[in-house]
């Protein structure tokens, strides 16, 4: 784990220092904006297919929440701040998330060892790795553990 954590810290540190990467992940970049909007459309399509038009009253866990940008979107989908939970391995990213998400519980932990009881979330999601600093070909053991938090009838949004 510490090798992975050090690799993540190095990658996100490199991205933060790179003007090219800051532009790449800016909403002013049309390609990135399109990718964000496409993810939002797909998420809403999944929710509609499951008969949901709001997430009011639902509890949601995001694995790898970073600075909390996607958690903000879930507030817009109707989830109350107290019903959102975000976890991330990088404390500095959580520090930024806490500034913009008062009232949202955020934890610095590994998804393989969640500090929650089983069935405490209605939905669990992890943003597809297209923008994550994951190692290609490496299995996502954390997804399996994160999937244990929803009750049986709520499928993870992975």
Tell me about this structure.
- The chain has 158 residues and is an alpha/beta fold.
- The protein has a single domain, classed as Rossmann fold, CATH 3.40.50.
- Helix content is 42%, strand content 9%.
- The protein contains six helices and four strands, in the order αααβαβαββα.
- It has helices spanning 2-17, 19-24, 30-49, 69-76, 91-100, 141-146; strands spanning 60-63, 84-88, 106-108, 123-125.
- A four-stranded parallel sheet has the order 3-2-1-4.
- α5 (91-100) links the parallel β2 (84-88) and β3.
- The longest helix is centred in the first third of the chain and has 20 residues, at 30-49.
- It is globular and about 40 Å long.
- The relative contact order is 0.14.
CATH class: Alpha Beta
Largest sheet report: 4 strands, parallel
Question: How many individual β-strands?
Answer: 4
Instruction: Report helical residue fraction.
Output: 40-55%
Write out the strand line-up for the largest beta sheet, numbering strands in chain order: 3-2-1-4
Number of domains: 1
* Low-pLDDT regions: 129-156
User: What is the number of helices?
Assistant: 6
What is the quaternary state of this protein?
single chain
Q: Supply the helix-strand structural class.
A: alpha/beta
CATH topology: Rossmann fold
User: CA-to-CA gap between the ends?
Assistant: 21 Å
Tell me what portion of residues adopts beta-strand conformation: 5-15%
Succession of helices and strands: HHHEHEHEEH
Tell me the radius of gyration: 15 Å
Mean pLDDT: 80
User: What is the CATH architecture annotation?
Assistant: 3-Layer(aba) Sandwich
Shape: globular
């Amino acid at each position: 784990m510490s090798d992975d954590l050090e690799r993540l810290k190095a990658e996100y540190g490199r991205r933060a220092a790179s003007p090219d990467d800051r532009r790449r992940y800016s909403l002013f970049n049309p390609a990135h904006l399109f990718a964000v909007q496409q993810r939002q459309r797909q998420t809403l399509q999944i929710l509609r297919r499951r008969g949901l038009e709001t997430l009011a009253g639902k509890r949601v866990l995001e694995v790898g929440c970073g600075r909390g940008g996607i958690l903000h979107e879930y507030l817009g989908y109707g989830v109350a701040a107290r019903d959102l939970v975000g976890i991330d391995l990088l404390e500095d990213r959580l520090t930024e998330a806490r500034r913009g998400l008062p009232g949202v519980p955020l934890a610095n932990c590994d998804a393989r060892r969640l500090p929650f009881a089983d069935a405490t979330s209605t939905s669990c999601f992890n943003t597809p790795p297209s923008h994550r600093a994951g190692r290609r070909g490496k299995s996502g053991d954390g997804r399996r553990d994160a999937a244990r938090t929803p009750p049986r009838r709520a499928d993870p949004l992975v």
